Amino acid sequence: MKDENKEQAKEFYKKGQELFNKNKHEDAIEYFNKAIELNPNYIHAYNNRGLSKYILDNYEEAIEDFDKAIELKPNLLSAYYYRGNVKCDLEEYENAIIDYTKCIELKPDFIINAYFQRAGAKYALGEYEEAIEDYNKTIELRQSDAMAYYGRGNTNIKLENYQEAINDFNKVIELKPRYIEAYHSRAYANAYLENYKEAIIDFDKCIQLGKNEPDYYYGRGNAYLYSENYYNAIKDFDKAIELDNNYVEAYNSRADAKYNLKQFDEAIEDLNKAIELDAFNCYLYNNRGLIKNELKNYKEAIEDYNKSIELNPFYPNPYFNRGDSKYNLEEYKDALMDYNKCIELDNSYTEAYKKIEDIKNKLENK
Question: Potential cystine with 318: which of 179, 253, 308, 344 (Cβ 3.0-4.6 Å)?
């Protein structure tokens, strides 16, 4: 290559970098193109053009540029790292992990973000224990990384390590006191531990910081629901639905609160609306069947349980509940079949065993 071409390529690259730093990525790409045209082996021009394309969501071309940069310089850390990020955005998590691992192999204690990003990819694949290890390493190398604690907290929730999750969210809040999602996640961790009072306090904080987000009212409503504070629960579900009138889960939970208050007709109205919005949700039909059974509309209840089973044949509850409706209709043999099916799907369903014994006694005494 002529020296003048090499120098001109450097000038184009420098101009592209200036535009990159100003977030003018389309213009930056034009100058990186010119630099590459003059110097087809210009490693950093490929790498930075790839990064501009990544920022512009042009993922496939970004990968091509990172591939070329790596071909020219196989130990180029940043190309592996950013190619990993692109692959994460494309949900190609296994391939992303390979790239982050290569970063770590090249410089294990320098590329801290590679541990963090690899943890996220492992989380997405359900590899929670391995994700925890990477979050631990991130925190070891950067102890004030709030997002690493947050990621580890959410991973601990997946592993049902709820107290450890709360400890992580406490640390996030210590580092970032206005980070709403940490309060939100901590609220759910507390709810899983049945610490409903603490969960409500965290949802209060979410509402204070985040204003009118329907999820916060829905979450707090469920904390009230499980605390058997049904009137406050309904108020929160009302607010969630006011903010999002297609919020299926809020209609379902409000129906649950109304059911517990014996407001059966209103509960059915909520479930009708939920089913209108999500006609393939097996849980909604099961729940509506419960209310119809309570109203002694046993045949209609059975129709709902039938639909629930049709949508999910491996869900034990509608078999048990259909057994109850058949029991109430004195169809004992059919009820027995449903209770047995329930136990086949979940052998810890103690109520089903009790009902089977009850039916056997009835049939023996006939």
Answer: 308
